[in-house]
Amino acid sequence: GEEVAQTPKHLVRGEGQKAKLYCAPIKGHSYVFWYQQVLKNEFKFLISFQNENVFDETGMPKERFSAKCLPNSPCSLEIQATKLEDSAVYFCASSPLSGTYNSPLHFGNGTRLTVT
Amino acid sequence: DAKTTQPPSMDCAEGRAANLPCNHSTISGNEYVYWYRQIHSQGPQYIIHGLKNNETNEMASLIITEDRKSSTLILPHATLRDTAVYYCIVRATGKSTFGDGTTLTVKP
After folding, report:
1. Chain A partners of B36 at a C-beta cutoff of 8 Å?
2. What's the pLDDT tens digit per position in B1-49?
3. Under an 8 A CB cutoff, do A56 and B93 touch?
4. Which residues pair with A28 in a beta bridge?
5. Interface probe with B: pick from A31, A33, A43, A109, most Cβ of B within 10 Å
């Protein structure tokens, strides 16, 4: 497709439950990025993929967060045992060529996760 | 990636040009300057980017100083729909590091 599609739009989980978010990048884009926006203006980079391979995971909390991008499937971000501080909007972005840095990111409209 | 500094907020009259500044004094030679905006809680929208030269597209113009330590995004004829948070990012690695952005309010 021509847009980055994120599902679901809203997700509510009780503390300790698992949350799984999905992202379908724009067709033909090799790079996928996940960002977390907790407060209104603060974006935190989590992880990026080049096709199905992890490209940069320096922002990933290792203990409870995991992500995958498998062939012919939407990418996913999973949070095991959610905590209240995981409440945020999670944005996915895709890009055709990250390596040249001369390629903008195309963002989806996010998944709002609320942990109660 | 280099850090950027933007004013937290700006106002602009509808129909006038909006000039949004960004300082990136520690920018490296291979880092691009990107601008995005976020309207309400939607995903950030790409506006424009450049390396050294000034750039223009259908949305905006980007002016980069000769020493590349600062830049200005220009929306030539701001409309109410341009009210948003504008982010200036310098990028060399795959990820983009967002700062706090500038909240632009376009007023009638």
Report:
1. 105, 107
2. 668 999 999 999 999 999 999 999 988 888 899 999 999 889 999 999 9
3. yes
4. none
5. A43
